[in-house]
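Subgroup meeting minutes
Present: P.N., E.W., G.H.
Scribe: E.W.

1. P.N. recapped why we're keeping a running log of single-chain structure predictions: easier to compare across weeks, and new members can see raw inputs and outputs side by side.
2. G.H. added today's entry (202 aa).
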Amino acid sequence: MAKLIVYYAHPGHPYSQSNRPMSAIAAGLDGITFVDLYSEYPRFDINADIEQRRLLDHDVILFQFPMFWYSTPSIIKEWQDLVLEHGFAYGSGGDKLAGKTMMLAITAAGPEDAYSTGGYQHYPIRDFLRPLEQTARLCDMRFAPPYVLYGSLKAPTDGSLESHVDGYRRLLEAIRDDSYDWGAADDLEVIQSGTMPVRGEG
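Output recorded in log:
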């Protein structure tokens, strides 16, 4: 079994219609470590020693969050600044995360066609995630295609949220149980509930 940790970051968690049920799934699964960053560090006083030990103890590090102004909620940036230290995550002697995997589970308010060269966001969603992808590469980690929910504000009423949340459960279980097909995932820009590369499904 792969050791999976899910870092959840949503400053408006009580009001979230999409990330809240997703986080409940992640928090309730056996064999998965779940960390609610805003709950654990309400004053942003992140304990780098604890977080580095958590990273050392896990194989797959997954960040779940809503896209905020084409980036992460601010606590994830604070977490990166304090935890991914020179000599630990990168630089001279900084090989502690080498070979591990970083993955994202994100929600975006805009529809899928907005995230294209012809859409009103002008760029594919992966382009907005390049800083995180490069962070993973600098730390010699694999950056896996993200699990994405487009149109997250309408998802609770258009019928897409239920399948997305169920897909998230299948994703986490597959990673935990070593049945997630990382090679097949690498051929995809993003993962959605209908494109889950899980061995034994299909």
